[in-house]
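Recall that a protein's primary structure is simply its ordered list of amino acids. Everything else, from secondary elements to tertiary packing, is in principle encoded there. The following example makes that idea concrete.
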Amino acid sequence: MRFVVLVHATKESEAGSLGSREQFAAMGRFNEQLARDGVLLAAEGLRPSSKGTRLRFDGGRTTVTDGPFAETKELIAGFWIVQGKSHEEVVERFTQAPFNGGATIEIRQVHDVEDFGDML
């Protein structure tokens, strides 16, 4: 099973901060362990929403809005895509992620082709 682990944005990440050298090194070690364990498929940080654009589709009309976006709690600052045997396994692994200061991550399973049944 594949999972996406979303890192919620903070005021600091929206300001463009990449964190301290120590935080960066700790995250590097965490990612290296995920790779050694054979579960890491992708891991990336995202630039602040001020560099992004939202597209909203409604009734055949598309609205384009350039960032920044006001609600930091609704923004994503980075992600991992990992594989695991279960949701619980991934949750357990990410309890060891090197975050502090009230950081929030969200773990969600990715749909597999089989999930769509006869719709494909």
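The mean pLDDT is 94. Residues 25 and 80 are 17 Å apart (CA to CA).
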